[in-house]
User: Which sequence fits this backbone?
């Protein structure tokens, strides 16, 4: 009898999982899974945002660097340059040039020489005597319009004719990012005669939506306008 009684107690004490416990476990697992998925989504969005900001910063550094290099070598009394037009001039037509240029010192800037064809049809580098530059916004970024005049005798003993060129600033850095840089704010490069500073804003924007991803105010004092040492 004693043995039978023990076995009966053992059978009575073996409890199964109740429906409430099962539902609670399922609910807990669903909550943990939802939290984990939500965390993955947040982490992925954060990674995308950080990556986008990093690429925008690279575009900003390249754009500002190129513009500083040019404006540091500006030699004419600078004027305000409106850059917000899609195309203020047609670089192939002298009659459609926008009136404001910046004259760049070719000996200290990025434009010391340029390539032309001489009278014999041979492509040769020509030393620049004068360089004029304009900037304007396009759907592909800031376009740089250049106008060169060559030094006498630098190519085949003759003075090189006026040569024209245009390109998108920092295009190699922007390619494949879906972003472009532009002269922002009111689209103007201003020059403050009191402080001798160029003042403008650079924006890095989404090429499709034009959403501003990064913005930076820039001030440049041309080296040519700095006071000389006594």
Assistant:
């Amino acid at each position: 009898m004693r043995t039978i009684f023990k076995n009966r107690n053992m059978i009575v004490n073996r409890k199964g999982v109740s429906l409430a416990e099962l539902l609670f476990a399922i609910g807990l697992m669903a909550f943990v899974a939802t939290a984990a998925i939500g965390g993955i989504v947040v982490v992925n969005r954060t990674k995308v945002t950080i990556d986008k900001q990093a690429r925008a910063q690279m575009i900003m550094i390249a754009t500002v660097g190129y513009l500083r290099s040019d404006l540091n070598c500006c030699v004419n009394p600078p004027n305000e340059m409106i850059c917000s037009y899609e195309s203020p001039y047609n670089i192939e037509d002298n009659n459609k040039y926008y009136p404001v240029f910046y004259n760049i010192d070719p000996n200290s800037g990025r434009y010391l020489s340029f390539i032309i064809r001489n009278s014999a049809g041979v492509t040769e580098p020509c030393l620049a005597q004068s360089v004029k530059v304009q900037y304007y916004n396009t759907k592909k970024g800031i376009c740089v319009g250049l106008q060169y005049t060559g030094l006498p005798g630098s190519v085949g003993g003759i003075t090189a004719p006026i040569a024209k060129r245009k390109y998108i600033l920092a295009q190699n850095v922007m390619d494949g990012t879906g972003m472009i840089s532009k002269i922002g704010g009111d689209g103007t490069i201003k020059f403050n005669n009191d402080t001798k500073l160029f003042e403008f804003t650079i924006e890095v924007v989404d090429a499709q939506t034009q959403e501003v991803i990064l913005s930076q105010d820039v001030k440049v004092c041309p080296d040519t306008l700095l006071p000389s040492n006594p």
Observations:
- Residues 33 and 124 are 68 Å apart (CA to CA).
- The chain has three helices and ten strands.
